[in-house]
Amino acid sequence: MSTTFTVDAATSRATPVSAPMKRLTIPAIRRAKGQIPLVMLTAYTVRTAQLLDPHCDLLLVGDSLGQVVYGLPSTVPVTLEMMSAHGAAVVRGSHHAVVIIDMPFGSYEVSPEQAFASAARLLKETGAAGIKLEGGAAMAPQVRFLSERGIPVMGHVGLTPQAVNMLGGYGARGRSEAEGAKIVADARAVADAGAFALVVEGVVEPIAVAITGAVSCPTIGIGASAECDGQVLVAEDMLGLFERTPRFVKRYDDLAGRISAAAERYAAEVRSRAFPGADQVYAPKA
Question: Is 273 within the bounds of a domain?
Answer without folding.
Answer: no
